[in-house]
Amino acid sequence: MMLLPCPHCGPRDENEFRYGGQAGIAYPERPGDLDDAAWAEYVFLRDNPKGWFHERWFHSGGCRTWFTVRRHTVTHEIRTAP
Amino acid sequence: MTTPPTLAFRFDGVPYSGLPGDTLAAALLRNGVRVVGHSVDLGRPRGVYTAGPEEPNALVRVGADPMLPATTIELREGLEAWSLRGKGRIDPSAPDSRRCDKAYLHCDVLVIGGGPAGLAAALAAGSAGARVVLLDEGPRLGGDLLSSRVLLDGAPAARWAGNAEARLRELPEVRILTRTTATGYYDHNYVLAVSRPTPEAERLWHLRARRVVLATGAHERPIAFPGNDRPGVMLASAARTYANRYGVAPGRRALVFACADSGHEAARDLAAAGVEIVAVVDPRADGQLVTGTTADAAGVLDGVLIGDRHVEADLLAVAGGWNPVVHLFSQSQGRLRFDDELQTFVPHLSAQAERSAGACRGVYGSAEAIADGLAAGAEAAALTGYGAPVAVRVPDSDQGALRPPARLWTCGDDPATAFADLHRDVTVADLARAVGAGLRSPEHVKRFTTAGTGADQGKTSIVAGVLGALLGVTPAATTFRPPYTPVSFATLAGRDRGLLSDPVRVTAMHGEHVARGAVFEDVGQWKRPWYFPRPGESMAEAVARERLAARTAVAAMDASTLGKIDIRGRDAGEFLDRIYTNLYSTLPVGSCRYGVMCGADGMVFDDGVTTRLGAEHYLMTTTTGNAAAVLDWLEEWHQTEWPQLDVRFVSVTDHWATVAVAGPRARRVIRALAPEAAELAFMTYAETAVLGVPGRVFRISFSGELAFEVNVHWQYGGALWRRVLELGAVPYGTETMHVLRAEKGFAIVGQETDGTVTPQDLGMGWIVSRRKPDFVGRRSHLRPDTARESRKRLVGLVAEEPVPEGAQLTREGAAPAIGYVTSSYPVAVLALVREAAEGERLVAVDGARRVPVTVVSPVFYDPDNLRRDGDPEPDDLHRDGDPEAGELADPVDPESGVLEAVSPAAGFAGRFAAASGARVRVREVPFVPMWEVRGEDPGRGLRLGPAWWLVVGGEAPAGGVEVSGQRTVLELSGPAAREVLMTGCPLDLHPRVFTGHAQTTVGKAGVVLERTEPDTYRLYVRSSFAAYLAEWLLDALDGI
After folding, report:
1. Nearest chain B Cα to A63, which residue?
2. What confidence tens digit (pLDDT) does each residue in B959-989 have?
3. Which has the least CB within 10 A, B381, B448, B696, B744?
4. Do A61 and B774 touch (CB under 8 A)?
């Protein structure tokens, strides 16, 4: 059970959170301007690195804040994201 | 001197007696029982081999526990145990009266193992002021010191352990858990441990530690020589433990195979206990080896072969060297290395905030382990911010320096009877066969031979070493996985069984439904009335009657479970425009609009009616199952994509109890309840008193009939429901609701949709705005695959025989499936089908049955929506010739009929009072006025998150959303209140840490937990979860 650093509630057990996948994938400004390949990239494609991963978490069982951390996908070491 | 009392027990039905403090294994040896079971594959007789949890042979069944090591079972009066052939079997009929629960504990330093190193580490960390938890699997602290004749400072080693324990017990922040085994080491120093304080109770501890000190000791290992499995062959350390600690001589004539110094120690201690030592064979001294054993007719050891020499002996004590217990270290993802001198695996690189101390990292010897433990404890205290520990002197020991063990894993020339894993019956010959088959990795050999996969997890298996010897390479480690020792499912389940296995959410009307004999269905965690059978009525009959009432008179359904989200803010309309496929910013105040929301992939995610309550104020309804997911969804888009929009969300699902009143005569009921709302136009709403209490009435319909949804605060829900039925409405359940909507061709999210269905597929292209520049999912609707004409579309089917939901549809002949049935009722069948025109004949495949069906419009009933406004009024109060429909009573005088309030846990008052005592009390604090504020700091209340408060009591705060019905308050107080909460709340409740409030869970219910007094806690719980939490608390109190 990982311990996640909620910016408001402090460290809490992983099962209080919802995983939000890769961080930094912004909703395109004008989706209509994107071609099908670019849109599919936004909707369907995400990184899956072995190592450090910048990802989002949602404290659904607490303060309901979205935040991002960097997690090492092998060791589960977590560093708060800048 | 008095004779100690004896304990009577039975083994395989035979009566014996033992002494208090014995393990079952010690008592069996005390009674001369040599054969304690038979091996799993070969059926060879086996005896007690060890004195701890690593036991591979002496596994027994006790009560409902199918397989326990006799070496860890504490003897008790009347114990009955049965031998096994290698593996246990679960007997579902065996009575299991154990009470299992769990508890959460947080500490600065967790010390696992209460031997010399662990005691020393706990002393050092504890005396520095750290919060320490010290675990040990045995009933007494001391570990090996209890089995040893080593003198520390001139006194028996057990005395040092006793002194250390006494000092620990004086430290208020040190918690000692004996009879507790750490079974798993997980991410971020999360450790699970199982406690068995009594045979009747088990507790699963969830421990979170800032630092962990592993002081798990070492297991002695055997040597694989022919006949090394006979009863009478035993690890030397075990023989010494039985002699020293239990006063049991495990044999009369012993030969010691001392490949390590522990053999000599055992020989000395056995001799002191009166055992005749016929020989000590130490290959390091003279190269002699034990090469075989002989047995009597029962298969019990009667002699040992040393080359050509045969020596009579009934005990062969084997010291093969030590294996540090690195299981937990390895589980923590730490890396091991093979130590060539010690001939074993030792911890190498840590992956977590832990350190090993003592024998578990190859530091042997009592004084050496104590010194290592003190250093580990001091380091842990320093790393968690504490000062220097009180100095503890390392005692002087009379133990000599230990020499390295012999480099020996196997010997003798009959590998087929030389066992490398006793529990799995794996021999050196089996391993040689695996190597011959080309296997090199111990992971592969393990799977090929099953070595190391038994209930003992191969703790005495020497497969890695033998394999290294066979291959001529350095042994390679396998992966250690939890649990360290077996954990029963009952322990894992704890109290989450039966009624408490999953929260049962109920509405304010639940008691009314139960009283009326409703049959319930589970919708998520909710109990919803499925149908309301009258005596003798079948489900089909009940549903037909309920449907007829809704179509011809008036019927009522409990719609409280629909998700409700209060949405406010300057940009609320703009936000909804982006989330829904249709427009909300243009919706007139007071109007309702049905909407569909899609994922970014364009697929239908949820639907519901959203009403504009004010210029900057909306109320969204969601499907029952998606209520939480939709709120998450809204907050995700707002927080992560459009934080500049001024919009705020508050869940009011439990605050409002909702009754749907449907049928041509619904207006008559509404007039009696809320006269102002009776003339509402379709898709409008009114804020109005409902029988004297604040309410909201919406004129919306999910059946095609004239229909209203009447909302009152939770506490009035039960009374409202009663009144609606008294007014003549026939209660209907979810089944009839589904029939009514299917007849109208209305899709249900999760029934017609499965995450691959667009609004257009459902024939709802009309709801997808073409005017808006964008909404979530819009761009995906233009993707070639989503826009193509050949997608499955919602159709109706007329079937010649009943077809089940899920039946595949094909064209005539053996064509591939082109769709499937999504909803099937006697009066309407819906399906998703590719390129099928109305009138086309298809086949529904139901196993071997092939049912002809005809494609029709999905709207089976009232396609022109003529029923929407009900019967013209005034109509007859009692419709002639329609006895199935409900009788309409005279309207109630609203002035005299104010609804009665009932709090969510009102039904528990008596049981709460009965369960309360001096140590802990529980009560409901009902009807506490509450508001949620999202935005400006109201200056009071409980802060729940960034810009989020729960204001309790007093006047309504500015911008507050009233949520008095959303939660109720359960109060737990008394000196044991914290102990009760610890069994369900994962937070650190230490009084120094938990001083205010937090959002957390208790059991499986989300709560706001507030500590109002040192020993008083308030639990703000959702009204629908109140009954679950009340049952949970009563169960917890029962265990205190």
Report:
1. B945
2. 999 999 999 999 999 999 999 999 999 999 9
3. B448
4. no
